[in-house]
Design brief:
By secondary structure, the chain is of the alpha+beta class. Among the domains are: 16-103, no CATH class; 272-368, no CATH class; 378-406 and 448-529, Beta Barrel (Barwin-like endoglucanases); 544-668, no CATH class. The chain has 24 helices and 18 strands. A 6-stranded mixed beta barrel has the order 7-11-8-10-9-12. α17 (407-416) packs across α18. Its cofactor is Zn(2+); Mg(2+). GO terms for molecular function: DNA binding; DNA-directed RNA polymerase activity; magnesium ion binding; zinc ion binding. Mg(2+) binds at residues 489, 491, 493. Keywords: Chloroplast, DNA-directed RNA polymerase, Magnesium, Metal-binding, Nucleotidyltransferase, Plastid, Transcription, Transferase, Zinc.
């Protein structure tokens, strides 16, 4: 559908029987109204033409060939005269054959049938509104219960007989033969409500506003009772309160959308356009048909049988009519959801039928594969890889994707800056990849966010906005912290990139969808930007350190291991595996790492500020080394104290690795950046 702002959207909901008829009915010039599908046939086996009033009828759904009717005649598709728009012989309208993609039909059900989505869904909307257990409603719908409460308001036969206790015994002997009498059908229609018709009558009698008022009163009474101390009773009370809230919300939604509750029970069953359930002829006289056609055939056959029995109700046994109503209900359920009755329905080759629910749900369904998975303009797709140098709000776009997305903006700026004179020359410059193209591309990207989406988009964090940066290669780079919101990892996942064009879309992306503004889960409020998978492995490798510890050789004053040779001849000595050097600050340690004098997990001594919190009050040094000038070194498990002859502490060294130092510096810089940003906001 298209709203007043010309936005295309898809809406799933309930419609009235009148609306279903309006979708399908067409008035022919002779006054005949077509739109109802009454026959289960598709194409004639000899002529290969669609059967009249069948599932592929050209009168109902439009011509198979554009402008050609079933007789083979042709007219101009835009004829102004009403009589010339239809064939006088076969009644087919002379229109384009594409009408068969959206022209619908309907099946007039001989008995009402509940919609399985609203009866057996979780939660069950019908059971919620009627405030009755789902099992009882299912028993009523499928004929397990023979009687329902009489729907008539005046005193009836059943109500009067129930008033006399002495007549109960005599009624038990007369019930069985009473069902077989010819007048039972008339009595049943007046006195007994069974099947989906009983559900429809009860839904039609509901007053939604009274439901809201009564539910609110009951909820307040339960709230005032408080806790009784009995765990089971308190639990039942909580469940009842939740149910009342859901019932009020559901009734309010029905009122706001102008939907009647009885529409959840079908009297008219819509028939999909034939192009959405095609029959394909292959070589060798093989015919491939959609499973939905077979399910529609089953509904029509059972519905026609029931209609025939109802016409001859005086001769047809009542139990046979009720059994046929149950078969119609089961056929409608199978059409809508094949697995609703437990085991899915299978054909003669033991193949499961694909119902309407199966067609639209899942990764290969109509929504995710055909609608959401469609290619659109100003979009691209590629594999995601980790971008360790990116900020949280940035993503790396390959040059090839970026120049395609922003091509129009680049051409505009090339012409504006008089770098080219027309569009053709600008496109040639882009193809030749001249340096000015990349300069303008970076300027354009600097103020233009992009949207990244990973299917399936199950919640709002499945699509987020990022500030793009140019990267080499053909993969999209992503900060690992945002992967949890997308439910993505770097094992070959693909993501789509979209370009917001309008100013409104760009403003919405910046204000609501940027990744650094979506740090908490919208469902439970917990942090969603937490280290996972690759980051945890990286942090583990970064901080794993040397497992030997300081006690590997506690009597080695130089920190050397046995049989270890150290070259002291060169001032810039080459660090070997087991030597533990001393560094005055973290910059010297990073410099030694860049010069490949130490490795990431090499143990080292880093000079630390004179902080008494480092020193354990009860810790005993592992070793104390004295020098000739009176200075000494107290060596502990994780730190080293250098003192003079006056027992004054001159310096403290902590035992660490370059990985720990790098991790500490990153945290320190992040805290400082956060503090600065917070001070700016104040």
């Amino acid at each position: 559908m298209i709203d007043q702002y010309k936005h295309q959207q898809l809406q799933i909901g309930l419609v009235s029987p009148q609306q279903i008829k309006a979708w399908a009915n067409k008035n022919l010039p002779n006054g005949e109204v077509v739109g109802e599908v009454t026959r289960p046939s598709t194409f004639h086996y000899k002529t290969d033409k669609s059967e009249k009033d069948g599932l592929f009828c050209e009168r109902i759904f439009g011509p198979i060939k554009s402008g050609i009717c079933a007789c083979g005649n042709s007219r101009a598709s835009g004829a102004e005269n009403e009589d010339e728009r239809f064939c006088q012989k076969c009644g087919v309208e002379f229109v384009d054959s594409r009408i068969r993609r959206y022209q619908m039909g309907y099946i007039k059900l001989a008995c009402p049938a509940t919609h399985v989505w609203y009866l057996k869904g979780l939660p069950s909307y019908i059971a919620n509104l009627l405030d009755k257990p789902l099992k009882k409603l299912e028993g009523l719908v499928y004929g397990d219960f023979s009687f329902a409460r009489p729907s008539a308001k005046k005193p009836t036969f059943l109500r009067l007989r129930g008033l006399f206790e002495d007549e109960i015994a005599s009624c038990n002997h007369s019930i069985s033969p009473f069902f077989s009498t010819p007048g039972f059908a008339t009595f049943r229609n007046r006195e007994i409500a069974t099947g989906a018709g009983a559900i429809r009558e009860q839904l039609a009698d509901l007053d939604l506003r009274i439901i809201i008022e009564n539910s609110l009163v009951e909820w307040k009474e339960l709230e005032d009772e408080g806790y009784s101390g009995d765990e089971w009773e308190d639990r039942k009370r909580r469940i009842r309160k939740v149910f009342l809230i859901r019932r009020m919300q559901l009734a309010k939604h029905f009122i706001q959308t102008n939907v009647e509750p009885e529409w959840m029970v079908l009297c008219l069953l819509p028939v999909l356009p034939p192009e959405l359930r095609p029959i394909v002829y292959r070589s060798g006289d093989k015919v491939v048909t959609s499973d939905i056609n077979e399910l529609y055939k089953r509904v029509i056959r059972r519905n026609n049988n029931l209609a025939y029995l109802l016409k001859r109700s005086e001769l047809a046994p009542a139990d046979l009519v009720m059994c046929q109503e149950k078969l119609v209900q089961e056929a409608v359920d199978t059409l809508l959801d094949s697995g609703s009755r437990g085991q899915p329905t299978r054909d003669g080759h033991n193949k499961v039928y694909k119902s309407l629910s199966d067609v639209i749900e899942g990764k290969e369904g109509r929504f995710r594969e055909t609608l959401l998975g469609k290619r659109v303009d100003y979009s691209g797709r590629s594999v995601i890889v980790v971008g360790p140098s990116l900020s949280l709000h940035q993503c790396g776009l390959p040059l090839e994707i970026a120049i395609k997305l922003f091509q129009l903006f680049v051409i505009r700026d090339l012409i504006t800056k008089r770098a080219t004179s027309n569009v053709r020359i600008a496109k040639r410059k882009i193809l030749e990849k001249e340096p000015i193209v990349w300069e303008i591309l970076q300027e354009v990207m600097r103020g233009h966010p992009v949207l990244l989406n990973r299917a399936p988009t199950l919640h709002r964090l499945g699509i987020q906005a990022f500030q793009p940066t140019l990267v080499e290669g053909r993969t999209i780079c992503l900060h690992p912290l945002v992967c949890k919101g997308f439910n993505a990892d770097f094992d070959g996942d693909q993501m789509a990139v979209h370009l917001p064009l309008s100013l409104e879309a760009q403003a919405e992306a910046r204000l609501l969808m940027f990744s650094h503004m979506n740090l908490l889960s919208p469902a439970i409020g917990d942090p969603i930007c937490v280290p996972t998978q690759d980051m945890l492995i990286g942090l583990y490798v970064l901080t794993i350190g040397n497992r030997w510890g300081i006690c590997a050789n506690r009597y080695n004053s130089c920190g050397n291991y046995p049989n270890q040779k150290v070259n002291y001849n060169n001032n810039n000595y080459k660090y070997t595996k087991d030597k533990e050097p001393h560094f005055s600050n973290s910059y010297d340690a990073l410099g030694a790492y860049r010069q490949k004098r130490i490795s990431l997990d090499s143990p080292l001594w880093l000079r630390w500020k004179l902080d008494q919190r480092v020193i354990g009050s009860r810790e005993v040094p592992i070793e104390v080394q004295y020098e000739s000038l009176g200075t000494y070194h107290e060596i502990y498990a994780h730190y080293l104290i250098v003192g003079n002859r006056k027992k004054e502490i001159r310096s403290i060294y902590i035992r660490s690795t370059l990985g720990h130092i790098s991790f500490y510096r990153e945290i320190e810089e992040a805290i400082q950046g956060f503090s600065q940003a917070y001070s700016y906001t104040i």
